[in-house]
């Protein structure tokens, strides 16, 4: 493989050019010469562009048209300026997204295209959101394996070659039935039973490996199920907790595909996006780890329905269990221990269940009023 041929050649040269260092570990030699895994000699001089500390980062978000990307772009653009944050995806953006800031086509399976985007736009931060989530992953394992694993390899190599700060989200789905589930700490057995979970454990381990081996500034948060009002989830096991609001407002009825007592960690999108910005901005010396659990609340479908029924007493919730999703949920954490994130870089959530429900209902209430007014 070219990567490893180049690696051994560069490492050999580094060892030979340092007198009396035959006992030096390979990793140190490699990191000291800023080697990157797919680097080709003819390109070497292009990889050393340095940015002053005061420059805003230039951010690329992959898979940016999913549930989380558009909101993250909005937050980062507010902080770093509209033109410093590029959204990308393989889908056609809706016109409001297209007109709200830079958008570019990027297929993460196309290494050269990705590299060209990073070079031409002088990208310094990469937020890698492209993925197939848990339920759609089980329905198309080959595609999930390709996007979530091969795609990640392209991202890691490009980030290492160009000295990028890289954020890759992981998930509660990176744990499995043999993990402690209540609570689930950062470090414990991880034997997920979905291709999604397996690919996320792979991403955590590969990112940490590239950090130790090549000095890649890899940062990773394990998100709980994320709840948002203005963007729809892309085929996960926690989707019911978003769908219930849409159906409650539209029809006053909701049929849940998980059992009423299925407890899962959840978070409102604003907390999730703020955590992502905070960990990306955290000084290196505050990060005792590179992969952190983050959490806000844990609830069951029944508890969520009861909280909604406080404001919509007529809401009718029934249950028709989807066995694939239920099996996945039954293998995931019930409560997430995020004490390391709170201790190291000051993570603190703002939304508990009552605030979440109120915020979601306010959003839909405002939308309904606007629709009536038009
Ligand atoms: N939403 C959640 O509840 C949640 C929870 C934990 C972790 N995460 C993680 O956060 C990230 C973003 O999640 P999301 O909910 O926005 O996902 P999503 O499914 O809504 O969006 C994923 C996006 O990836 C894009 N994509 C697919 N194949 C691609 C390819 N070959 N090249 C480029 N883009 C491609 C899709 O078009 C889609 O827009 C994912 O990595 C996910 O695993 C999400
Ligand atoms: C939890 C998360 O990774 C995603 N919402 C899913 O259910 O697949």
Describe this entry's structure for a reader.
- The N terminus is likely disordered.
- With 374 residues, this protein is of the alpha/beta class.
- It is globular.
- It has 14 helices and 13 strands.
- Helix 5 packs parallel to helix 7 and helix 9 packs parallel to helix 11.
- It has a domain of 255 residues: Rossmann fold.
- 44% of the residues lie in helices and 13% in strands.
- The strands form 3 sheets. Strands 1, 2, 3, 4, 5, 6, 7 and 11 form an 8-stranded parallel beta sheet that branches. Strands 8-10-12 form a 3-stranded mixed beta sheet. Strands 9-13 form a two-stranded parallel sheet.
- GO terms for molecular function: L-threonine 3-dehydrogenase activity.
- Catalyzes the NAD(+)-dependent oxidation of L-threonine to 2-amino-3-ketobutyrate, mediating L-threonine catabolism.
**What is the structural class?**
alpha/beta
Helix content: 40-55%
Query: What's the total number of strands?
Result: 13
Mean pLDDT over the residues: 88
Bound molecules: nicotinamide-adenine-dinucleotide, threonine
CATH evolutionary superfamily of the domain at 16-37 and 47-230 and 267-297 and 334-351: NAD(P)-binding Rossmann-like Domain
Element order: H for helix, E for strand: HHEHEHEHEHHEEHEEHEEHEEHEHHH
**Low-confidence regions:** 1-34, 40-53
Number of helices: 14
The CATH topology name of the domain at 16-37 and 47-230 and 267-297 and 334-351 reads: Rossmann fold
The N- and C-terminal alpha carbons lie at a distance of 61 Å
CATH class of the domain at 16-37 and 47-230 and 267-297 and 334-351, named Alpha Beta
